[in-house]
Amino acid sequence: FSLFHLVSSTVNTKLPAINIPTPTLSSQLTQISHILSLSQETPMAKQYQTLFLILSISYLFSSDLTAATAASPAGVSKKAVNFIQSSCKATTYPAVCFNSLSAYANAIQTSPKRLAETALAVTLSRAQSTKLFVSRLTRFKGLKKREVEAIHDCAEEINDTIDRLNKSIQELKLCGSAKNQDQFSFHMSNAQTWTSAALTDENTCSDGFSGRFMDGRIKNSVRAKIVNVGQETSNALSLINAYAKKY
Question: Pectinesterase inhibitor domain spans which residues (predicted)?
């Protein structure tokens, strides 16, 4: 079992050619929250999580699906696409932002709240797939003690990231039901804090793989995944801040 085999099998995995309607933002967030709320001790929870993570990895590494996401499909509101593109220009990684969110244009429309919620949901999905990838690294034979420690530490940081992103999603949902400015500001501040904390966790994980003592293949693979999650998190935080200013 090698890193090459793991990456190759992941990259070459493609979803079957079936017609699946574009998920609405509401159904996506409901599914994610339901999966994460299930007890991890039950077999059913593990099955749901495994299926969800496999689909996430297939999405991340399928070149066909990536190309389809970047394009504007027929029937998508041009106004919504332009809104997403314009909003993404204010983020740190505008290309990553647009490529990740443009597929959800019909659900987002021109709502800053839905845009921020979708950005968090996408980031959470990326973090979940990264967690699976990192956890599989411990199967490699011949790892040095320091490498094993770095992998375990990184896995813990990613778990913290997932927990904080999920809390941020919940706080952002509460912003939508706020009855006054004070309530909105309270929940918005919490969402910003949790998302910022998630970004710190990702940086800590990446730092753990620095240094010459680390296997180059492992270091490069993990850091590539963490960088992607970090970019998505940074963009999500920017869009949350933009939503806060619109209230």
Answer: 79-239
pLDDT digits (tens, 9 = 90+) for 92-139: 999 999 999 999 999 999 999 999 999 999 999 999 999 999 888 878
Question: What global pTM score does this model have?
Answer: 0.69
Instruction: Please check whether residue 55 lies inside any domain of the structure.
Output: yes
Residue 39 three-state SS: coil
The answer to the question of residue 53 being in a domain is: yes
Find the domain containing 220 and state its range. 40-246
- What pLDDT shows up at residue 3? 42
36 or 130: which leads in pLDDT: 130
Tally of structural domains, the chain: 1
Q: What is the DSSP letter of 23?
A: P
Domain membership flag for residue 22: no
Contacts 24+ apart (CB under 8 A), 75-83: 75/106, 76/105, 76/106, 77/105, 77/106, 77/109, 79/109, 79/110, 80/105, 80/106, 80/108, 80/109, 80/110, 81/105, 83/108, 83/109, 83/110, 83/115
Residue 8 lies in a domain: no
